[in-house]
Amino acid sequence: MNEIVLQRVVAMPREFAPGILYVSDEFGVAGHLCACGCGSKVVVPLGPVEWTFTERGGRPSLRPSIGNWQLPCRSHYVIRDGQIVWAGNWTEAQVLSGRRAEEKRRHEYYAARDRQRSLLSRLWRWIARRFGG
Q1: pTM of the complete model
Q2: pLDDT at 126 over 70
């Protein structure tokens, strides 16, 4: 299987069909059957520090790659413009390094968001004190 088609859903179906990428904007997830054909369900969260879903001309893309390191097949691929693009296998050290990098990105993203919220909160309190009467 080298092609995958998009199906938008509200919630993930109980059973997945081969060659379909299910995307729920409402719940922020995407799911499909593993591209290797092993039959495992692969569900990934969508968001600013998770996977990014895009669609061009009805053809779905997911970034970053799907690394099924916890599955027996250990398949690794990217979904790009409706095509499965196979990527190389990673060593255990590469998997651990990738997981550390993901955790660092998450931490940095949420720390920056918290700083921004704190700044906006302080600004709002200042405005309220200054003009609130």
Answers
A1: 0.76
A2: yes
